[in-house]
């Protein structure tokens, strides 16, 4: 799932521990994050197993 799809689904989007709205990401060009460094995506689930967020963390 990419950032645009996560936004369409209303998911929380965090990059390196900071929450961003989709418009923040587009405005700051953070959508290029995967092209500039290696990031690992983690899906966050609620107690019912539904995806509620996606976190991107830089792999060092």
Helical content stands at 25-40%
Low-pLDDT runs: none
Strand coverage percent: 35-45%
Radius of gyration, in Å, reads: 11 Å
Mean pLDDT: 85
Distance between the termini: 22 Å
The number of helices is 3
Order of helices and strands: HEEHHEE
Oligomeric category: single chain
What does the overall shape look like? globular
How would you portray this structure in words?
The chain is an alpha+beta fold and 60 residues long. The chain has one domain (3-58). The protein has helices spanning 3-8, 22-27, 33-36; strands spanning 12-15, 18-20, 39-45, 51-58. The protein has a 4-stranded mixed sheet with strand order 2-1-4-3. A hairpin with a 2-residue loop joins strand 1 (12-15) and strand 2. The radius of gyration is 11 Å and the shape is globular. The two termini are 22 Å apart.
SSE blueprint and pairings:
Elements (H helix, E strand, L loop, with lengths): L2 H6 L3 E4 L2 E3 L1 H6 L5 H4 L2 E7 L5 E8 L2
Parallel strand pairs: 1-4
Antiparallel strand pairs: 1-2, 3-4
State the main characteristics.
four-stranded mixed beta sheet; alpha+beta; about 60 residues; 4 strands
What's a concise summary of this model?
The protein has 60 residues and is of the alpha+beta class. The chain is 27% helix and 37% strand.
């Amino acid at each position: 799932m990419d950032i645009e799809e996560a936004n369409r689904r209303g998911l929380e989007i965090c990059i390196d521990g900071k929450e961003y709205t989709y418009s923040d990401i587009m405005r700051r060009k953070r959508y290029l994050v995967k092209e500039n460094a290696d990031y690992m995506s983690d899906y966050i689930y609620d107690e019912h197993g539904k995806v509620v967020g996606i976190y991107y963390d830089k792999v060092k």
